[in-house]
Request: fold
Amino acid sequence: MLLKIENLRVNYGNVEALHGINLEVNEGEIVTILGANGAGKSTTLNAISGLVNITGGGIFFQDKALHKLPAHEIVKLKITQSPEGRRVFTTLTVQENLMLGAFTSINSERIQKSLKWIYTLFPRLEERRRQLSGTLSGGEQQMLAIGRALMANPKILLLDEPSLGLAPILVKSIFDTVKEINRAGVTVILVEQNAKAALKLANRGYVMEVGNIVLADTAANLLQNEQVQQAYLGGGH
Amino acid sequence: MEEFFQQLTNGLAVGGIYALIALGYTMVYGVLKLINFAHGDLFTIGAYLGLTLLVSMGLFDKIGPLPAVILLAVMVMILVAIIGAILERVAYRPLRQSPRLSAVVSALGASIFFQNAIMAIYSPKFLVYPHDILPKTVINIMGLDIPVMRIIMFLTSLVLMLALYFFIQKTKIGTAIRAAAIDQGAAKLMGINVDRVIMLVFCIGPALGGAAGLMVGLYYGQINFSMGWMYGLKAFTAAILGGIGNIPGAMVGGLLLGVIEALGAAYISIAWKDAIAFCVLILILIVRPTGLLGERVAEKV
Reply:
């Protein structure tokens, strides 16, 4: 097992956002976390990345307790995130954004290799590498956010709603790329509202509701699950 | 016409000082959205430390004026940088999660602390730099008699500013500083140690401010524990003029303010020098509320 979350609790002020969740990720998998707004999906990812403090339980990567490390140390363990809302550095160029993704790497040969790979995954980024990233379209910014997270050559890639606000054709292309990234050996945790597309892509899935995990199964089973169909896939069709 | 060019060179020399101090305000504002009100006092500390080192080490007699000034500047910059880092650690970091107003109050407190500490250690009187150590040479450039020191002062601030600009724009650490100024959370996701970036900003800004303090001491000759207040206010104005948070903006704003002030003093009235400077600030902010170089790019969501 690559990543294990045990009885994880997170508070925002006095409000508990995660009520003790358990989640496991095996090497090479794509695991998706589904759920409505406010279910705690992003909070889970941010707890893994060390952006929010946890109040109970733990997060373990191989043998290391991630919840005891600051965010920048977690990136050094090769766990990176493409955050919700993309959050590219708008007044920096595309290439500067990508190079920041490799901030923890010192091997310049390795960095150039990653850069080349990202430009093959997203040729659009190479065309616009000198442009300020704030001038990119939403889809291009999403590509940049994913590419930036890949620059550190991650073992685990956390993707927070990569399809948000994108046209259906772009969503498909982004999801195809996620598959390609996974085939290259990167374990992926994918948070999505677009449940159908996410379950088709993933090996396994978790469904969250108001801070709890209510379902955990293989993606194929979840696609057939009546509850999931009712809630997230628009009925039985 | 000769009067005009004389005032222009004078304004550029003073403007260089404003720009150096303004960089400290603007860099700290960039990463923390905090006005470091103690920054003017770090400038004062630079002037006092410069005087102490100069007198106690007798460098000018031992190694000659130019190496002595350079060595002095390096020592002052390092010492003031350390004080800046301590200031951040003690007065600002514990308040990082608090409302922004708390940090502002802490900044004002730090400013009062520094002023009183300088007054207690040195004295409330004006202190005088030894006045025979630097060349009083005046050179003639295209019919203008310009003191060499004025040129050296302007060139020094220019070199420091260009070095900073290169560092911020071209190096990996500089890019990390820019990233942390845009989005601290996203910067952490890149593996950037944001606390360390903030600490570094609190070293660079005060180092430049300290260098400015030393230059004022050497050029004008007399220093006082409260001198940081007016210089700080002017530099803060310069930072806003250029667009606070924007590094080239602070440089342009500083130089511009120095020139406006010098020309205003020459052609209107020296008594109205400060009022003219602030009137120009108000006029520019009416036309461009974000300052001259503020917000270069419209953010797309």
User: Anything to note?
Assistant: The mean pLDDT of chain A is 94. Residues 156 and 171 of chain A are 21 Å apart (CA to CA). The longest strand of chain A covers residues 15-25.
